[in-house]
Amino acid sequence: MTNKMESIQQIIRSEIANGLIKPGQKLASIRKQSERFDCSLNTIIRVYQELERQYLIYSRPKSGYFVVAKEALLPLLQTKRIDFTSAAPDPASIPQTDFRQCLNKAMELFESSIFTYPDPQGLLSLRQEIVKLFQQQQVFPSAQQVFIFSGAQQALHLLAGMPFPNGKTNILVEQPTYWGMLAALKTQRQTVIGIERTPDGIDWVTLERYFQSNMIKFFYTIPRFHNPLGTSYTAEDKQRLIELAKANDVYIVEDDYLADLETNSKADPIHAYNGASHVIYLRSFSKVMLPGLRLAAAAVPTSLIPSLQWHKHAADLSTSVLSQGVLEIYMKSGMYAHHAKQMKSLYNHRIKHLREISQRLLSKEYLYTIHSCGGLFTSIHLPDFIHTEDLVKRLENRGVDVFATDNQFLPSFPKLNLLRLSIMRTDEQDIEEGMRIIAEELERVQYTSSSPKPFFRL
């Protein structure tokens, strides 16, 4: 079947799945469909014959083609799900046997601590291991400056609500940004200001003005493999950012949640650019290990330690000893480094494949951050005339799950019409099939819209 025929077939199939053509309803005539899709009568005849072979439609002599009954359609329209939404690791990629061994060992080694309330800042032995891990990223805290949290979400929640030594109260965030940070800020009822981040970076003039005039307590940023954009700051950007922060006494909360996936050995975090006095360096372990362990770690400036200790203790008394023990054993045994290396290779291969397929199937103007390298996420920019919710629903009906980024913007900030794509639970076949379906649905919008812009390269 040619690409043109397959595209037309999938569009009609999608219309049936979405209920635009009801069971028992007559399909448009062969002539009308040939005019609609700008193709020959023979092409439509072959498309209808193929749909008939799939038992989705049937013909009545001298009457045309009709959709079969709903009960017969359901199993035929069900498809394998292609998950471009998930931000959690594929269970198949996690060495669960290794974790069970570490859990059993943790029960043995930390038995006495399980029956007490340990240091709310985290087990000292684990913090010492975290220091070694951070040093690999050119971040050099003392163990006293390291905090262990019950997931990065807890860290963000506490930092959003606690006072900072600069005495300022407002918080600046990139737009778009991680939805969990926006949720934490909303629950804390903080005054939040947004600043646009594009594939080209950030508006430095606006950033400096905000730093100088808006009483910014801290600036929350994801400099590496941004969520949802997938882009990273350059070395020059990081240097400039820390200089502005120190000059204006603004703290930076650096969410380096994908440091383990970096393929460029020279890509250091902001903290490494002489930022120890004004950077809270935050690392999560959810993307490489089990999210259910609920663990994250941060290196904080000395000036923040007393206040953060009090707020952490008030929040949960202490982070799970068992989870901390599992992570410590996993790191000390070398399992963590080995597994992180495997995950880096796996995810890097997938994101490269997504980029190659997307560049082949989609027009350039819609490849918002497809050109970026590494990480887990990339994004597609849709024109304003496309109703994102409708497109997401159509893709869902065809077995493709995508993530609209509306909740990654502040309510008051102008939203971009973006779809975020994740490769965490896809393989090469999923990526190729999923992007083909996305391209076909975009083509369908072109057919039904007055816009002349091309979406799909046939």
Automatic annotation (TrEMBL):
Highest rank taxon of the organism: Bacteria
Boundaries of every HTH gntR-type domain copy: 2-70
InterPro entries in the record: Aminotransferase_I/II_large, HTH_trans_reg/aminotransferase, PyrdxlP-dep_Trfase, PyrdxlP-dep_Trfase_major, PyrdxlP-dep_Trfase_small, Tscrpt_reg_HTH_GntR, WH-like_DNA-bd_sf, WH_DNA-bd_sf
Keywords on record: Aminotransferase, DNA-binding, Pyridoxal phosphate, Transcription, Transcription regulation, Transferase
A Pfam family assignment: Aminotran_1_2
GO molecular function terms attached to this record: DNA binding; DNA-binding transcription factor activity; pyridoxal phosphate binding; transaminase activity
Required co-factors: pyridoxal 5'-phosphate
Sequence similarity: In the C-terminal section; belongs to the class-I pyridoxal-phosphate-dependent aminotransferase family.
Record-given protein name: PLP-dependent aminotransferase family protein
Organism whose genome encodes this protein: Paenibacillus apii
Source species taxonomy: Bacteria, Bacillati, Bacillota, Bacilli, Bacillales
